[in-house]
Amino acid sequence: MKGDVMMRIIITDSYRQMGREAANMVAGQLYLKPDSVLGLATGSTPLPMYRRLIALHRSLGLDFSEVTTFNLDEYVGMAPDNPQSYHYFMNENFFSKVNIRPDHTYLPDGMAEDLEAEGHRYDALIQQKGGIDLQVLGIGQNAHIGFNEPDVKFEAITHCVELDEETIRANSRFFQRLEDVPRYAISMGIKTIMMARRILLLANGANKAEAVRKAVCGSVMPEAPASILQLHRDVTVILDRAAAARLPAHLEGTKILYKGRMDHAE
Ligand SMILES: N[C@@H]1[C@@H](O)[C@H](O)[C@@H](COP(=O)(O)O)O[C@@H]1O
Fold first, then answer.
1. Could you give the CA distance from residue 37 to residue 66 in angstroms, rounded to a whole number?
2. From the CA of 144, how far away is ligand 1's center (Å)?
3. CATH number for the domain harbouring residue 103
């Protein structure tokens, strides 16, 4: 075990279970600190987590009134009211369905004229709000986190990135044509992500298994941006079985929990 660094890995039976586990962690965070600052992600991976959080809000009154959120990224040139934007995604899938204050939800501004200045403003704002307590991450097939593509600079803060062809292809499923996928995004940098107090990495599906292996037990290197998470002191990885398929059965310094069926109605 490297110092006191330890990843906790939770393998669940399904995509839905992965979402439930993740939502439980977020709910636990809010229970202890109702005015938490959450770092949030888009993509299909966190959708069941958002659904479960909404269900917890409706059934148990899970309270978001004091919560502040910062999203990882946004496409460059995409206005918040564009249905393909991450602003729109977050409103549709989460913000509009819980009692979070709209002026407490932040995403990088993809329309900013000076993207470098916007990156600095965004990071400064995160610190001004006390820093991120819990950062939720998905992972790209090339092991990107946020939009930090392979060969990223680990010291980067929020900045403009050119997307990899692989990422553009993967994200084209949300667009009518491949040519419509933006080629640039503004994303929290690795340093911004690593400054979060706790990190929750989610992945499901066989197409993420290799990226998960690199993140959890590959060499720490810029070619696999998520591998940097091995150096963070409080990371929980929640997977479905397919995404966990390439992990060795035993990992030194890693606590693997298996959470099988434990389920009841949503
Ligand atoms: N910028 C996002 C990432 O934050 C996300 O983790 C990744 C995986 O997306 P999905 O969850 O849809 O597989 O895609 C995008 O590129």
1. 9
2. 8
3. 3.40.50.1360
